[in-house]
Amino acid sequence: MHRSWQLTIWLFLVLSGFHLVRAQSTPERTYKPSRIEVQILDATTKRPTPARIRITQNGRVVPLLPTEAVAVMYGLWDHEDGYAYQPDSSFYVAGKFTLNLPPGTYQLALSRGNEYLRQQQELVVRPGGAVRKTYTLQRWVNMATRNWYSTDGHIHIRRSPRENPLIMTWLQAEDVNVGALLRMGDFWETYYPQYAYGEKGNYQQGNYLLTTGQEDPRTPELGHAFAIGASNRVRQRDRYYFFDEVFDKIHQLGGLTGYAHQAETFHGYRGLILDGLRGKVDALELLQFCVDEQPLHTEHYYHMLDLGIPLTATAGSDFPWCGQDHGHGPPERTSRIGNARFYTFINGPLTYQNWRKAVQTGHTFVSSGPILDFSATTADRRKAIPGDQLDLKRTDKLTVTVHAYGHADQVPLSALEVVSHGNVIGRITPTDAGQSAAHLSLDVSLESIQRGQWIAARCYAGPGQAAHTTPIYVTVDGGSFHNPETAPRYLDLCEKYLTEIEQALTGPRPETELQAWKYRDGLQTRIVEVRRILDDLRKKYKTP
Predict the structure, then answer these.
(1) What is the pLDDT of residues 101-119, one digit of tens each?
(2) In this predicted model, what pLDDT tens digit does every residue of 25-70 receive, in sequence order?
(3) Which Gene3D superfamilies match (predicted)?
(4) Which end of the chain, N or C, is more open, meaning fewer C-beta atoms within 10 Å of its C-beta?
(5) Beta bridge partners of 131
């Protein structure tokens, strides 16, 4: 038995050595890398254009980066988690790049934001010689020519003036007209600093603009607040949970305020009620990929609207924190600038002042792909777009018109709806006569208007693709646009949220991130104020 075991080992070693010798004696054929030169053109201008590039081979990312890749330090908590590579291992170039690749077949993904058609190209590299390729990116829609300019209202990248041209290339490679770079804060610290705010912090190239803002205060108990368009930042370290004081100062500085993440996460709905009912909040970040794969969440938006409180719809990527990139990378969650954006109608050229004024007016719709054209016209031919108010006489007529635009392959529309007081009053799909996955249109006639209402449009397309407008606010004889049917339930829900805040004020708490209890007296005073407002609304809306 023992000799048999020794013989087995001896045979193994001999055979292994034999194979090793054979492997060492057989020379491997090696090839020098071949040089590839790639140029990306815009189909309309015929000129080189910034683009997003991702190179893979057999499903794996090729770990080679061209020197032309535009690099800016970024990361979670302002750490240097990324540089030239994006979270999905793509990179940005200004219009061309060169790279040395071993022979083989590669897959090249090219894109330039939501308004351009994405491309998947096969790149065959053979031994010896250079490979020269020119690819042309084609728009399926050009919103800037219609005076609708896109904004990513929630980007976290630190910068100095030196980074401006680099970050601008990132913005242009996603075709985002306005990028709002938000300094972020919490109870202890601030992150993603900006060198200046307001006009002094702006950087513009043609129809592309970098501007500043803040996501601060941010708390687990009351949510995350944001501000854009202010001439300076505002931070109250020693009065941190009094969001309203920050909002008031932002308004004095010419900015607008809102709650991030659809008010879904970090109990943002509590802060929205606490500040929104007192007229401190201008906007809600209605579309974003921070909650789940469906970026459009309307529960808290409709809550406020149905109580007669106007809110402008905004959106943002929350780069580099959030994102579900369907069709742009691997299936896991990846953040991408511009994957959630809002469009603003600007009656004139894109300037900082024109943009800020238009956002404050509420002329917006949010989108992760589809495009909406939404308006309402009265019998006397007064026309309104998102954010406008129409005051009618009782029994007046109103015609609502909405078009949704997509692309049959990459933004395939699935449904278009007109919503009033949260109820669908008109719906169309591609299977209806005269409709398609690229264009849906709908007219809704409202006969004999009896009471005020808010009216908005929303649509859905492929996975993760949705859009929603800011409402048109219809009032009758100068009244409110609130919803009397849902007001009792929503007022009770407000009280429930106030009770949640009160429960969060018990302390001290062992969790260091929970600091609301330290501000018990001031928050309780604000809760009492909101309860008085709720009582007034119950009387005004005649609810029990």
Answers:
(1) 999 999 999 999 999 999 9
(2) 334 456 688 999 999 999 999 999 999 999 999 999 999 999 999 9
(3) Metal-dependent hydrolases
(4) N
(5) 36
* Amino acid identity at 44: T
Residue type at position 462: G
Average pLDDT, the chain: 92
Q: Which residues are CB-neighbours of 361 under 8 A, at least 6 positions away? A: 387
Burial of 512 (0-12, 13-18, 19+ CB in 10 A): exposed
Three-class DSSP category at 344 = strand
Neighbours of 544 (CB within 10 A): 6
Mind listing the pLDDT tens digit for each residue in 253-295?
A: 999 999 999 999 999 999 999 999 999 999 999 999 999 889 9
**CA 105/CA 102 separation, integer angstroms:** 9
Mean pLDDT of 14-18: 34
Q: How many CB atoms lie within 10 A of CB 486?
A: 18
**CA torsion through residues 474, 475, 477, 478, sign:** negative
CATH topology of domain 370-482: Immunoglobulin-like (2.60.40)
Q: What is the pLDDT of residue 33?
A: 86
Going edge to edge, which strands form the sheet with 34-42?
A: 96-101, 34-42, 130-137
Interatomic CA distance for residues 175 and 116, integer angstroms: 8
CATH number 1.10.10.10 is the correct assignment for the domain at 140-368: no
**Full DSSP string of 89-139:** S-EEESSEEEEEE-SEEEEEEEE-STTB--EEEEEEE-SSSEEEEEEEE-B
Contact, 295 vs 267, CB < 8 A? no
CA dihedral 184, 186, 188, 192 (to 10 degrees): -10
474 is written with which tokens? 């219809």
Please give the Cα distance from 448 to 217 (Å, whole number): 45
| C-alpha to C-alpha distance for 409 and 415, rounded to whole angstroms | 15
pLDDT at 10 over 50: no
pLDDT value of residue 129: 76
Strand partners, 312: 283
Count Cβ atoms within 10 A of the Cβ of residue 172 and give its class: 0-12 exposed, 13-18 middle, 19 or more buried: buried
Contact 418, 457 (CB under 8 A): yes
Predicted local confidence at residue 544, as pLDDT: 65
Residue found under tokens 């040395």: 100
Taking alpha carbons only, the member of 165, 175, 187 closest to residue 43 is: 175
Q: 34-137, what's its fold?
A: Immunoglobulin-like (2.60.40)
Angle in degrees, CA 480, 313, 321, rounded to 5: 150
Instruction: Report which of 457, 222, 184 is spatially closest to residue 322, judged by C-alpha positions.
Output: 184
Taking every pair of Cα atoms in the chain, the longest distance, rounded to a whole number of angstroms, is 107
Strand 130-137 to strand 34-42: parallel, antiparallel, or no bridges (unpaired)? parallel
Question: What are the structure tokens assigned to 539, written together?
Answer: 């009387």
Spatial distance between the Cα atoms of 496 and 489, rounded to a whole number of angstroms: 11
